[in-house]
């Protein structure tokens, strides 16, 4: 059992070392990250609940895209007559809201394809 645990730990160490090398290839990764122009993410305090957030969504004319069950959060679509930034600023003032963040879009420059040996 100790041998298996030692091998597993060594494998994890090797994987983390190779992952660190790969990230060096993308020194300006933040320069290529985009965000949605219509959707943003909100997290809220579970103890306060989401009733204030539901009311704010209705009052502001926004739309729930997804109500996450695993975390205390939602993705929300801005109303068409408001900018993303002003909508995000509004939701930062709602009681119980902990954070309002951009919905980031990550693009892969080099699409994944099978290796010739995998065909």
Characterise the protein shown here.
The protein is 38% helix and 26% strand. The chain has four helices and four strands; from the N terminus they run ααβαββαβ. The chain is elongated, with a radius of gyration of 21 Å.
Q: Percent of residues in helical segments?
A: 25-40%
Low-confidence stretches: 15-27
How far the N terminus sits from the C terminus, by CA atoms, comes to 36 Å
Listing every helix as H and every strand as E from the N terminus to the C terminus, the arrangement reads HHEHEEHE
What descriptive keywords fit this protein?
about 120 residues, Alpha-Beta Plaits, alpha+beta, elongated, single chain
Detail the topology: elements first, then pairings.
Elements: H1 2-23, H2 29-32, E1 34-44, H3 51-60, E2 63-68, E3 73-77, H4 84-92, E4 97-105
Antiparallel strand pairs: 1-3, 1-4, 2-3
């Amino acid at each position: 059992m100790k041998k298996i645990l030692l091998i597993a730990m060594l494998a994890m160490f090797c994987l983390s070392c190779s992952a660190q090398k790969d990230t060096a290839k993308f020194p300006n990764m933040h320069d290529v990250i985009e965000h949605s122009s219509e959707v943003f993410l909100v997290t809220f305090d579970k103890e306060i609940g989401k009733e204030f957030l539901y009311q704010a969504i209705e009052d502001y004319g926004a739309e729930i895209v997804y109500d996450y069950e695993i975390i205390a959060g939602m993705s929300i679509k801005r109303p068409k007559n408001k900018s993303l930034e002003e909508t995000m600023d509004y939701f930062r003032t709602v009681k119980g809201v902990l954070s309002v963040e951009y919905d980031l879009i990550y693009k892969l420059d080099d699409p994944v394809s099978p290796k010739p040996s995998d065909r």
